[in-house]
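Summary for the lay section of the report: proteins are chains of building blocks that fold into shapes. Here we show the chain for Peptidase M16 and then a coded description of the shape we predicted for it.
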Amino acid sequence: MMKKIVLSSALLAAATTAGAAEFRLPQFETTKLPNGLTVLLMERHEVPLIAVRAVVKAGAVNDGPQAGLANLTGDAILLGSTKHNKAAIDEAFDFRGAVLAGGGGVEQTTVQANFAKADAATLLPLFAEIVQQPGFDNAELDKLRARKVSGLKQAKESPRQVAGNYYRSMLFGPGAYANPPGGTVGSLQALKQDDVKGFHQRYFRPDNAAIVVVGDFDPAAMKRQIETLFGQWKAEGTAPQRADYGKPLTDKPRVWLVNKADAIETTFLIGGAGIARNDADYVPLQVVNTVLGGRFTSWLNDELRVNSGLTYGANSAFAPLSQAGTFSMSSFTALPKTEAALDLALKTYDRLWSRGIDKATLDSAKAYVKGQFPPRYETSEQLAGLLGDMYALDIDRKQIDNFTRDVDSLTPEKAKALVDKHFPRKNLQMVLVGKAEEIRKIAAKYGEVTELDITADGFKPTAK
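The coded shape description reads as follows.
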């Protein structure tokens, strides 16, 4: 994601205070323009700031064989419009201390801006321009692509930056969820201006997008301005339809051993299938995962860092998407300690079933999650991001509004049921990034081994 100057913003009262009984999402209005564009408006008058976001239902899952196309398109939108070049756009936002950013993720591409209320009349039309009529200047696009290629090459020098790409590729195989959002060196180098223009034309259309506005504005006036700026946006042909992006492959225990010949550490991820973002158990699962590996005092961090000194940190997380998701435990350790760290991680993980979570531990995790969750949705920018995710990933607002209820109602018995239902226990999937010569025999303990080399382009095994 490309960023401009960061606009400092005050906290908004989107969350309840610590002593309040319930967290609820502030009210917002949803409308649809005649051209199919969804408009989400949330008033927040505490400070004179506005966050606006264009959300398009297209991302890496739509790249096809051109990995990184959505991400490149999302960033390239910031290179100027057909009416104003990049320098003019940059000057307009930078002069006012505003933020302009863009980027493509797994399932959505976004363009976002944060600015003072007084600057809305000037900056919102420029924002509308680059969303609907980006210039995609070829010289600027070449420079952007070169920076991205350089970044991908550098990332492979740091296993912790790329291990997740190998993990998703392993789990989703031929499915679109396996596509690396940032692309590969080869795929990016092959992308041309026409590819970016084509992606924009196919997916940036009003019936496949939403405009989210959160902040200090008059709703009637803002609605008129949005209609004026986006009402003439036209769509040609049938709107793109969501396909099946794939499910995790977990029919047998597998290990992808990614060789980094000069590695002195082993970076690892262990897990399997997770949940979709709109799963009814999303909130209570955050509590259960907090116990396992979701905070500094978690079981995994205590065992692998504090008690054994095998690593500087260990964690676990669910990574949900609109149709599926993954679960993983992750850490890194010195090469000679690889087997000990893996065995201890697995032993600690098994405590979810062998010992379960007692009431005191669960109550502590519940308090932690209740303290952490509301502050994620305090600023206009955070709330705009949430509304954008709700649109792109089909998240029901009940999941947010019922947050407190779902946390408070969690008991050790319910926690056990969640563990049995959602945490993978059999056929665990594992990615190891390290010196294969030293850990090849260790890897074979945990499943069927497939070897890759980190110097090879991309994140899949090389075809033989």
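Put simply, here is one thing we learned. Confidence is low (pLDDT under 50) at residues 1-20.
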